[in-house]
């Protein structure tokens, strides 16, 4: 039980989701969990601002300690609860290195997603250009191809044989791609990875509630 | 001595510089060091592509292990050489959490720098907008103010009393700001932090060579 922990989160956000997966993996169920709505702007509300002055989710506390950066929260939980729940750092030095490499390449993947899928959200109308949209879509496709290539030689997990922090952190981003209609036939290795990890208890237990109740998008189906 | 390590790097790049600082801190001098020129496009050359298919620097190898993501390389070096050189993880749990929090907030700071200072490099001419430049400059200023605020209550290092991975990773980004003319009088706490860390041996020994030979810019002097 983790009564001294509080997580404010929004459904479907990879940064929030990865912290929820890390908490499940480390056997830290029972934390104070509060779901907020991005659509209603609740991430800019005073409950969040009291923990995270940037007004972003996740907002996470462990006792008096605040850790709002999702990568940081995952690394912290693994380090502070080394001998509890599932070990998320491989034994093997080469897998540890690959875990770190993939974990941080995950930032590129999420960046490309934001640049392409959320272009209209981030770029004011009078600054939008079809040339930028096209370039961003190509950038996302190239990035996804890199990951498809990785999974042709590595597996079943991102860093090899063990489920690790790389999966905790990057899986929600991969799931996001399939939620937006990524074609399983075009990216079969990534699809196999997605299908392996989506049934893991920590992932099933934290699956975005709004994804269960609504169909996915088909934005990426032709990619 | 670290003869089984190879680092390909470019001068003045915060991602390269942080790996060099980490290597110094962990007593891993003597690695194979190869400086390349971004200006000449050498980061897209075959030496780099053999290690880093993205054609980016740093490109880092330890024996057969490849770790090109600078955050990952720093975390890996600290973990694999726990008992060598300087310990870069604080003992105290609250400082560990703060180390992770600041380390990853450092990504926001570097993003804002790139959006503002490198706007013309990243955005094709026909897609540029004065409104975007103005918004990006304000975004950078707001971000720097957040860091100035942090240093009003924390210090002398980013996570408190101990020099940690947060400093290894974020100091080069802070130094970049002053290289671009950030006004010490407008941001006195950040300036004090910069002045404290810049004389640290690991930092002095790796100070960008092209910064020594040329004056800084004054782009940020009015911020």
From TrEMBL, chains A, B:
PROSITE patterns: GST_CTER, GST_NTER. Residues 3-85 form the GST N-terminal domain. Signal peptide: none annotated. CDD domains: GST_C_family, GST_N_family. Residues 92-216 form the GST C-terminal domain. Belongs to the GST superfamily. PANTHER family: GLUTATHIONE S-TRANSFERASE GSTA, GLUTATHIONE S-TRANSFERASE-RELATED. This is Glutathione S-transferase rho. It comes from Xiphophorus maculatus (Southern platyfish).
């Amino acid at each position: 039980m983790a009564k001294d922990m509080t997580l404010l989160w929004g459904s479907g956000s990879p940064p929030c989701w990865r912290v929820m997966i890390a908490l499940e993996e480390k056997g830290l169920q029972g934390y104070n969990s509060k779901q907020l709505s991005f659509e209603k702007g609740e991430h800019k509300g005073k409950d969040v601002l009291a923990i995270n002055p940037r007004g972003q989710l996740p907002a996470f506390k462990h006792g008096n300690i605040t850790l709002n950066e999702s990568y940081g929260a995952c690394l912290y939980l693994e380090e502070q609860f080394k001998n509890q729940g599932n070990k998320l750092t491989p034994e093997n030095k080469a897998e540890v290195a690959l875990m770190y490499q993939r974990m941080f390449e995950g930032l590129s993947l999420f960046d490309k997603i934001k640049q392409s899928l959320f272009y209209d959200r981030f770029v004011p109308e009078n600054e939008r250009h079809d040339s930028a949209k096209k370039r961003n879509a190509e950038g996302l496709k190239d990035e996804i191809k890199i990951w498809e290539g990785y999974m042709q030689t590595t597996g079943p997990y991102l860093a090899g044989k063990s489920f690790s922090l790389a999966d905790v952190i990057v899986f929600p981003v991969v799931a996001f791609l399939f939620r937006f209609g990524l074609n399983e036939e075009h990216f079969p290795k990534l699809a196999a990875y997605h299908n392996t990890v989506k049934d893991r208890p920590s992932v099933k237990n934290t699956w975005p509630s709004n994804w269960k109740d609504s169909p996915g998008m088909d934005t990426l189906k032709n990619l």
